[in-house]
């Protein structure tokens, strides 16, 4: 048996991968695996990855070949790669593009390379119900209204569909980028990846927070030159998008509208939020604002923070396949496991760049991540031992000793802007009262949030506390330290977004610090291990500090 001791990768027959962190080739191998595998566990010495059908299909959609994947496995493998693994990789990646949606005159058709595949698809009841009569041995009619649901159904059955049916051009809109807006090379590459190719015009661009995803969205909109609907994660994100559009393009205030609870404007570029679109007056009612999807001749729909797409928006997006669709996110991870819906209904991953690559190029700050394990007070430890699961989680989150650790960390970074971020409002409120910090939560009126954000940006406020509202799309570029005092259980996407709050480039040393306060020997420590997975995958090791 061939044995290459300096190599870090053990490829197993079940398509799991063991990556040894102490190997001199660890970082090189980790960066290569990012293209086609998913990190499952990341203890100190051996990380577990897995190759999944969806990870391979996203790799294929991004332009990677089965030969590249198999060569990567062989190049880093410590032992021979089990024969079934490259066979399975080639079989799965070969499926991408063999089932296609195409335009047949005024109609749509599902087209396959092999007539037996169409016969197999007919045996799937959910797919057969969505397929029309056969037009040949290798093609069947598809009603336009079934375009999205068919893609979702076939993906779940193991047949990713390459959608080549094209799009309806929306109403034209004349606009250009301002002369002083220069796209970075990777931003230009992301726009090209989204717009070009046989199925260009639908898909997801994955870039870290602070890398300019908004600019990618704006540049895509300008290049298409069509009316655009932009869906945002909240009011703050909506306002930031509006400011960026007006600053970076030739569009004016009259061209850019808001569709919110306060204002109902339909303009050539319209911004709204997921909350507005899914709001309904009664529990059983159809959200009345869904009509926004189908009005005004949109040529492009942009989904900001697409990993948060609510289930009702997924369903409506299934009807929206004739429009170009761009998803923007820092991570495609979804805790509900619905990454496949993003792939089928918004589009596959078109562009992805490892966070550490952008860090090395200076486009995002160099970040250090520290997990501070804080023991419970003795009375709390005894209560914890006797408590039920939910109570245990509350005891761990509200660990009183976190206050002393927060005090030391604030003293350690006395001259830089600091964000204190938490999920548990009771605990966060106690900390902010103790240290006299301003707190922004979902209950804070939009106007008051804007005032506090402006004060933080100007330096009038040095330390700002944020609830979950601060996870997404908050433009606080000077923040250099984030201290996480509580989180949403094992949410990998939340961890990534919170680190992203301090990744904007910094003058001088361009460094940032991310601290996560975790109650030692509790469920919070278990949650922390899962929360950190995505960032570990991107190359951010967590240094563990144990408080005594």
Structure characterization notes:
With 548 residues, the protein is an alpha/beta fold. The protein folds into four domains: 87 residues, no CATH class; 65 residues, no CATH class; 169 residues, P-loop containing nucleotide triphosphate hydrolases (Rossmann fold); 188 residues, Rossmann fold. 37% of the residues lie in helices and 21% in strands. The strands form four sheets. Strands 12-13-11-14-15-10-16 form a seven-stranded parallel β-sheet, sandwiched between helices. The radius of gyration is 24 Å and the shape is globular. The model has no long low-confidence stretch (mean pLDDT 91).
Structure, briefly:
By secondary structure, the chain is of the alpha/beta class.
Q: Can you identify the CATH superfamily of the largest domain?
A: P-loop containing nucleotide triphosphate hydrolases
Q: What is the number of helices?
A: 22
CATH topology of the largest domain: Rossmann fold
Most strands sheet: 7 strands, parallel
Share of residues in strands: 15-25%
Strand order of the largest sheet: 12-13-11-14-15-10-16
Mean pLDDT equals: 91
CATH architecture of the largest domain: 3-Layer(aba) Sandwich
Q: Termini distance?
A: 48 Å
Estimated helix fraction: 25-40%
Rg value = 24 Å
What is the highest CATH level, the class of the largest domain?
Alpha Beta
Could you say how many structural domains there are in total? 4
Regions with pLDDT < 50 over 5+ consecutive residues? Answer: none
| Overall shape | globular
